[in-house]
Write a structure and sequence with these properties.
Chain lengths: 363, 332
Amino acid sequence: MKNPFKNNSQLIQLLQQVDKLLTLPPFTNRQYNFMEICGTHTVSILKYGFRNYFKGRINFLSGPGCPVCVTSQKDIDKVISLAQMGVRIATFGDLIKVPGSKSSLEEQMALGKKVDVVYNPLDCLKIANETDEEVVFIAVGFETTIPVIASLVLDAEKTGMENLSILPLMKTIPNILNFLLSNLENEIEGFICPGHVSVIIGKKPYKIIPERFEIPCVIAGFEPVDIGLAIESLVSQIRIQTSMVDNRYKRAVKENGNPAARRLIAEVFEQADVEWRGFGEVPASGLKLRERFSKFDAEKKFNIKVEKVAEPKGCICGEVIAGKKHPSECKLFGKECTPDSPIGPCMVSYEGACSAFYKYGEQ
Amino acid sequence: MEYILLSHGSGGKNSQRLLKFIYNCLGDIVINHSEDSGIVTITQDKLAITTDSYVIEPIFFPGGDIGKLAICGTLNDLAMVGGIPKYLTLSLMIEENFSFGDLKKILTSIKEEAEKAEIRIIAGDTKVVSKSKLDKIFINTAGYGIIEYSQNINSHNAQPGDAVIVTGDIGDHGAAIMAVRNDFESDLISDCASVVPLIKNLLDESINIHTLRDPTRGGLASILNEIAISSSVDIELEEVKIPIKDAVNGICDILGIDPLYMACEGRAVIICPENESEKTLKILRKTDTGKNAEKIGKVIDKSENPRLYLKTFIGSRRILPLLSREQTPRIC
């Protein structure tokens, strides 16, 4: 079946409408700053050429929406330390190359430590079932992934699995946006809200952005037509001086999100203050296991102790994630730091702003 | 006997049995049964010689197997310099405990492809290695072909103004393999095939091919980057013209992989003068493997800093860089 959201002739017409709006006040004097939070949006905006198309008119900043990129150096060190203890690690593929302060999982694998790459957290059940070794799933991710991680914990409890635990590094979106807007130096004039996360959390958590900060928001999908619609929505809102949360991803995002998935999350996890790369500790911006499930917490089970470490010298991933700097402003970008030998996490993950810009950057 | 044992590689009676089994499966495409070397008479001035090792996982995939791949891959490498394949060598490295049934299937594919291409296997080798020292079966083939045509085909020869043509849909092989590895349900089959007949037709019709490459590992974007660098030119592709199946796009979207970097095993990229592009397409489309051939872009200018550009379907332009490592699947 042809994907109607990809190469669609109406998209060109839509973009021409946006072009026209951008010749009218208040757009005539300067470039406007939009932030996309989700890493997959960053990729779409670059890959389909939107960044270059709107060059000089709209500047796209990448926000803290790539789960690997926002994982702090200290948390990466925890993962490495688990591997060094001889625990069998199950992880999403992107984490393997992320350098910790002294080593990476890739290096640990070369040294003979066991690391399984999984696409679905539930695959860990099978891995743990077939071995007597201790298996730890590295639980990174946002609201999109967390319901499945919750299922993993519930299934492990139900089947009385003793050799499976998770390292909880999960983050949640609403409070980090609040934090970002309260602390930002650069002015963000429009938000493209993460489509996959919105499928779970719905529209409501974003309402504070137009209401308190008077910034237009749009919930968007990831295909070219979705991106076009999102830009059109933000530009139109600015043009008529209004701010709202516009849902332009209605085929996937319901007003109220997915309450069943949220109940699943709430059954297993509770809010926690967690550390973000680039931001430090942010109140109520992540999740920890509820007391009932604490035996599945690998940090407690293996008594992980790591020292606080500085981020790699010269690396500006923290500022990139905060939308303060563009990857091209980093001295290491494309020189010492490439997808082949990444220094910061934004160059590792497919969704990382640096990796996306390295791969899909314009001329 | 159902499985291959270490003794099948020992040089004794079991080795003889394995060899006999292989010869039986391959039939008369093997022309040199009992000597240590094959002997050929070289009558032409210009020959093409190539070698490649095949280590694919899974060894059986939709649209082919490691045997078909080992023949087509080497035939295609010969064709990419205008060589018409004549002889191949065949080396089998087999893991102890590999099943004779699977070996027979692989040898049957080899026979079929060799017969189709009218080539002969002139030398071969079989090794059996202990369990877990290699994964199931690895195959090496070397090929030798005759260059009968006068066209000067090479990677340094792409000229400003030339058309860039691809002989069919991009990324089918890579996507079909990824689908199997990830247990996705899909109807995709690998494009694994010999492109020799397509290329022979073009050469017979005296198309002035400047550059010819098969987009295997690294895919379309990687080989065009290599051509851009070798020829010191900028190349621009048009996204809307690149033939990619929706199923391939779908699998790539799920895995966070770009189809332009996905391996093809039965495609060629042809760079020829613009005024010969229509004729080229017409000739290609006559053959089943070339029916989806498209002109996908052009060589723009000479450049000291050669780049491959993509004109996206919204009319914007971005670079398609040479990637330095395998793409990893995304996680959310």
